[in-house]
């Protein structure tokens, strides 16, 4: 579970960087990267939830 938390942290940093580039600088490519990363984060969060529930049993 620790590995999934680390991966999530890395993906969140990528997302925040790209989202800020789009919002502040109007960088359209960064917006596309941020949207792609948000989908990856969604999948990772769902997996984390499953792992967390399993670990709590």
What does this structure look like?
This protein is mainly α. The protein has one domain. The chain is 93% helix and 0% strand. The protein starts with a helix and ends with a helix. The mean pLDDT is 96.
List the helices and strands and how they pair.
Elements: H1 2-25, H2 28-56
List keywords for this structure.
single chain, 2 helices, mainly alpha, 57 residues
Strand fraction equals under 5%
Structural class: mainly alpha
* Straight-line distance between termini: 14 Å
Low-confidence stretches: none
Helix content: over 70%
Total of domains: 1
**What's the rounded overall pLDDT mean?**
96
Query: C-alpha Rg, in Å?
Result: 14 Å
In brief, what are we looking at here?
This protein has about 55 residues and is mostly helical. It has helices at about 1-25, 30-55.
